Amino acid sequence: MGNRLTQIATRTGDDGSTGLGDNTRVSKNSGRPHAMGDVDELNSHIGLLLCEALPDEVRELLVDVQHQLFNLGGELSIPGYELLKDDALLQLDEALAHYNAQLPRLQEFILPAGSRAAAQAHVCRTVARRAERMVVALEQGEAMRPAPRQYLNRLSDLLFVLARVLNRMDGGDDVYWKSERMARAQSAEE
């Protein structure tokens, strides 16, 4: 891996390029920096979510996710390098199974709303989806391992589930979309 940063204002990016971890330089507008930036933004939003009151096990999971996202970003910054390990994906699968088991079945689409923590989890989810799309776009032009794409896909699912969990923390519930179908079904029941 490249040298650790010793200064931040290097001015080497003034020409519109950025350095990758293998010491190559690419346009800041190319796919790899876009994917790296989206992963970094996701990690920052998770940091903001961690400012909220969260159950301890959710907090521990999200702190670990931040570390895994840093690994994922590192892997994106060094073409051909592997930093994200298989157990990271397994951790997400286990967390999804654990938290999904606690939730009632969805009756309708839900809005990205509710408590502040749940709404922030939804913001994280949408940024994870964008990062996933950027990784998919990057894969179309370069050979890559599937792990970064799979991790982001699973993480966005987990963030959706965690938003539902967080909305229930103090007796709340999902905020359902008021669809015409749902309204007709409720009218039929009355």
From TrEMBL:
Taxonomy, superkingdom: Bacteria
Residue ranges, compositional bias (Polar residues): 1-10, 20-30
Catalysed reactions, semicolon-separated: 2 cob(II)alamin + AH2 + 2 ATP = 2 adenosylcob(III)alamin + 2 triphosphate + A + 2 H(+)
Protein name listed in UniProt: Cobalamin adenosyltransferase
UniProt xrefs under PANTHER family: CORRINOID ADENOSYLTRANSFERASE, CORRINOID ADENOSYLTRANSFERASE MMAB
One Pfam family cited in the UniProt record for this chain: Cob_adeno_trans
Keywords: ATP-binding, Cobalamin biosynthesis, Nucleotide-binding, Transferase
GO molecular function: ATP binding; corrinoid adenosyltransferase activity
